[in-house]
Amino acid sequence: MNGGMMMNLKKIAVIAVILLLAVISITKIAPWAAAPENHAHSIEQTDNKIATVMTLSGGAAGTSATLSLLPGDMCTPIAEQLAELAKYFMLILSALYLEKFMISLSGYIAFSFLIPAACIILCVAIASGKKNWYNIAGKIAFVGLIIFIIVPASIKLSDMVYQTQAESVNNAVEEYNNLDIEGDSEGGFLSELTTLTSDTLDRVSSFLSSLLESLAVMIVTSCIIPVLVFVFLVWLVKTLFTSNVLTIDESTLDKIKDKITK
Question: Fewer CB within a 10 Å sphere, N or C end of the chain?
């Protein structure tokens, strides 16, 4: 009788500690993980990319609008290409804003929902003695930690790739800032077709080429790498829940149970 009571008291004590950890996860760790100031570097890197994309998108749209006002059709193909590039840059901008939101949201999801859920399932496993629930709790907790880590890791990987090609992107921004089309004619930009000199056409063409290169860099760093990381996460979660990865064997579970009950 006393042995059974002591076992129950130990179970209750262990369950109380685990529930306390769940409460701490929700009330303390989750706000810390979601606080923007704790992700200052990642947010700063993303904001820098957002500012660059906005500059290039505005430059492409503005240059396209300017060229489309010229008489004749000589600059129409370039204007259309620039307008199309502006649309792609807007898609990249949306992806960057989503990435920025996920920096804080991933930590909140992990420590407000997944980790507490794992703690509750672990408590149920201890109370009921269902050994397979230990494995479920461990997998959910592991997924929560992966979600918390994966977004900063994705941003870090993207930034490492971006830095290798940052010079080409900066060159595109510099070319746009130096692109003074209206200064080529005393009679005004829209006076005649001949006011657009060959030098200006060369600079516009060079700007278009730089935009294409910058777009490729941005697509890889802001879209492809995060998608690949997300695919890896989905594969990892699927692997965890459909295989014996992170599955605790019977002997280990018996040892854990003995420590709780003794």
Answer: N
Q: 226: exposed, middle or buried (C-beta count within 10 Å: 0-12, 13-18, 19+)?
A: buried
Closest CA to 61 of 211, 222, 255, 186: 211
Q: Classify residue 208 by burial, with Cβ atoms within 10 Å: 0-12, 13-18, 19+.
A: buried
Do 248 and 132 meet the contact criterion of CB atoms below 8 Å apart?
Answer: no
Give the span between the Cα atoms of 92 and 98, in whole angstroms.
Answer: 10
User: Cα 208–188–190 angle (5° rounding)?
Assistant: 60
The tokens of 236 are what? 């990892």
Q: Evaluate whether 103 touches 44 at the Cβ level (below 8 Å).
A: no
Whether residue 17 contacts residue 74, with contact meaning beta carbons closer than 8 Å, is answered with no
Q: How wide is the angle at C-alpha 182 spanned by C-alphas 177 and 183, nearest 5°?
A: 85
- CB burial readout 119-136, b (16+ within 10 A) else e: bbbbbebbeeeebebbbb
Alpha-carbon distance of 192 to 181, in angstroms, equals 13
pLDDT confidence band for 238 (50 / 70 / 90):
confident
Q: What per-residue confidence (pLDDT) applies to 18?
A: 92
Per the CB < 8 A criterion, the answer to whether 100 and 60 are in contact is no
Residue located via tokens 């930690």: 145
**pTM of the entire structure?**
0.74
